[in-house]
Amino acid sequence: MKHSLLCFSTCILFTASFFAQETDSLKNHWLTIHAQTTVINQFKPHFHAPYSGENSLEKEQENKTSITSTLYLGARLWKGASIYFNPEIAGGSGLSGALGIGDATNGETFRVGSPAPQLYLARLYFTQRFALTKETTYQESDQNQLGMFVPESYLSLTIGKVSITDFFDDNEYSHDPRTQFMAWSLMDFGAWDYPANTRGYTPSVILEYISPDHEVRYAVSLLPVQANANTMDWDIRRSASHNFEYVHRHQINNLEGAVHFLAYFNTTQMGNYRQSLNGLADSLAPDITSVRAFGRSKYGFGINAEQAVSETIGVFLRASWNDGNNETWAFTEIDHSISAGAVCKGNKWKRPDDELGLAYVTSGLSKPHRDYLQAGGLGFILGDGQLNYAWEHLTELYYSAALIKDNLFLSGAYQFLVNPGYNRDRRGPVHIFSLRLHLTI
Predict the structure, then answer these.
(1) pTM over 0.85
(2) 305-347 residue pLDDT tens
(3) Measured between alpha carbons, how far is 431 from 73 in angstroms, rounded to an integer?
(4) What are phi and psi for residue 373, nearest 5 degrees?
(5) How far, in Å, CA of 226 to CA of 242, rounded?
(6) How many other C-beta atoms can be found within 10 angstroms of the C-beta atom of residue 130?
(7) CA distance 122 to 221
């Protein structure tokens, strides 16, 4: 499996490298071709736990590897219009199959049943920009980004299959598990049940207003027909996700910063935690899937701040909350979360392309959600059979070394996890060691 996956990844990167040499010399590109491959190995030793359930983090020693390879193709169609196509292959597994932790530790893994490599369509979308000013800035060629002059202020319309996190909840210092922090609620708002299929993509329509200091965006997206499923429900009258974000960009002492405010509303055939417990015999465990009904909803909010404090150091803060009455549908079982951290470039030790990052995140559950798990219920991520509730805590430290400038990076990371699955009885602590190789062209 690993051999075939690596061969496919090598072909993708070779093709991208060949065409990049043809297009990088052009000022206004009509074509963009890039690629990436990321391999992450995670190891955890045994930790003590008096009991385990169907969806628990395994207490035995584990060693798991994941790999993803993505080809980023883009073409300019006419003035302001472009189209992007991303085939992707992924294989491997997270620790315990990405079960038993609200804040899962590898953002490159998914809650899928089989670790066998799968080739699938990640993104296919069309974007049209409408200029609001004659002033332009040059945009470098990058993944899903054409090298060309773009207006400083514009409106845009995007239609197609996307990762909604490419557009919302961006953060300079904590957003990409391929190059930065790997934990799920460090790459995005933990309590944001963002619309996605099992692998993180969904058909969407996105409207944006972009200016140098202000950004406003709204998206309506499809939700899966079942929690954590690949098949999407195309009837947006009964099932859809609505996301709104405002971003203010600023400078403090000539250093860049931004504040993001996000609100979301999901409605679909969710189960209700309280209803699943009503009239339940003491000897039975509740089943959230048995009380699903259309018309149920989940809403939440988040604030995301980033600020450079020097030419080499940046800090960030995220906080998010959702109402937690109905079941988690797409991302992870977190109802409120707060994280903070800092990233330092390696200039002081003469490694300007290296990065050192340290972050902490703590997450919790709503009262209905925790009561459901305490009674023995299962979510699609959590379920120890019982629950002695406590907040989940995770600290992550990583160092990324540039082996080849802009192209090849080797990272080592350590994560210290307490109360996995919000369970004080299984508190650990759990020590997780990671090695990551990231190749991009």
Answers:
(1) yes
(2) 999 999 999 999 999 999 999 999 999 999 999 999 999 999 9
(3) 39
(4) -70, -35
(5) 18
(6) 12
(7) 15
